[in-house]
């Protein structure tokens, strides 16, 4: 049987105020009453696991049609969280570079459904889309009630429904779910979003990797001490999740890959350079 390979797909970058990444990182004081804002750039990426039991995609980046005058994203979102991609960074092109078509993907694990993680879900009509039950339920409720969905994009959700995607949800009671041999879905629960999922991948050569996504934005959030992000649904849940990941990483002797850590991302082998096995 062939060995699994893990590819890091660079799907571009975004920018936002650093306070969204690390909440209150530069509070005002008597000595510094007007601290300057920082508009920082950070990576957006997906992970492809080419496994003998089927190809697995973790997250899907931003939709290429998000930005611009007639873009999917509302103007306020485009100004607060602009995305930057050339065509080579589009997810479908990153896959094509590896001679992989969307129809070849068996499972897509969506860590959550924010614009920079679920923007291309609509492409995967053959796959089973796996997401946290609370995340899907709350996002669909928002979709039904308003077009102003914050970090969720109404047009993205509309495309998922139009394309009749096949969903599987992970319930609150499911802590760890084996997807295929050596790959487990980790239920992180509420925190950064309504319901977060991660993956634990064991590779014969590399060892264990925890794909944390935005359950932990960066090493600075990870700490210790834990530092909350500014985009947050459940602050207690976020802190509990970080400690859960820390314990799990120690127990399994695994690396933690953060969702948007620019320095860590520089160290990754990208899909254009090679893979992990």
For the secondary structure, the number of strands is: 12
CATH topology: Metallo-beta-lactamase, Chain A
Could you say which structural class the secondary elements and strand pairing correspond to?
Answer: alpha/beta
Q: Tell me about the biggest sheet?
A: 7 strands, mixed
Cofactor: Zn(2+)
Family: Belongs to the metallo-beta-lactamase superfamily.
Keywords: Hydrolase, Metal-binding, Zinc
GO molecular function, one term: hydrolase activity
For the structure shown, list the relevant keywords:
Metallo-B-lactamas; MBL fold metallo-hydrolase; alpha/beta; RibonucZ/Hydroxyglut_hydro; Metallo-beta-lactamase, Chain A; MBL_superfamily_lactonases; seven-stranded mixed beta sheet; 277 residues; 12 strands; globular; metal ion binding
């Amino acid at each position: 049987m062939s060995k699994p390979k893990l590819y890091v797909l660079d799907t571009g970058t975004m920018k936002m105020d650093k306070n969204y990444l690390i909440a209150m990182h530069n509070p005002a004081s008597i000595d510094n009453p007007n601290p300057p804002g920082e508009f920082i750039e950070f990576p957006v990426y997906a992970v492809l696991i080419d496994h003998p039991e089927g190809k697995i995609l973790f997250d899907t980046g931003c939709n290429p049609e998000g930005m611009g005058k007639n873009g999917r994203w509302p103007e306020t979102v485009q100004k607060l969280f602009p995305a930057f991609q050339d065509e080579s960074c589009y997810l479908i092109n990153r896959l094509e570079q590896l001679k992989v078509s969307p129809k070849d993907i068996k499972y897509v694990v969506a860590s959550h459904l924010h614009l920079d993680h679920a923007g291309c879900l609509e492409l995967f009509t053959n796959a089973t889309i796996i997401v946290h039950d609370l995340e899907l339920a709350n996002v669909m409720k928002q979709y039904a009630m308003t077009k102003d969905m914050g970090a969720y994009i109404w047009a993205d959700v509309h495309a998922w429904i139009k394309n009749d995607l096949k969903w599987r949800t992970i319930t609150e009671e499911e802590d760890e779910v084996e997807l295929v041999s050596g790959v487990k879905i980790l239920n992180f629960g509420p925190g950064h979003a309504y319901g977060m999922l991660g993956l634990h991948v064991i590779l014969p050569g590399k060892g264990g990797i925890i794909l944390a996504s935005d359950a932990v934005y960066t090493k600075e959030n990870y700490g210790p001490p834990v530092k909350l992000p500014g985009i947050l649904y459940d602050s207690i849940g976020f802190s509990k999740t970080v400690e859960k990941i820390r314990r799990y990483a120690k127990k399994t002797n695994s690396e933690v890959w953060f969702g948007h850590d620019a320095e860590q991302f520089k160290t990754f082998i990208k899909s254009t350079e090679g893979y992990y096995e």
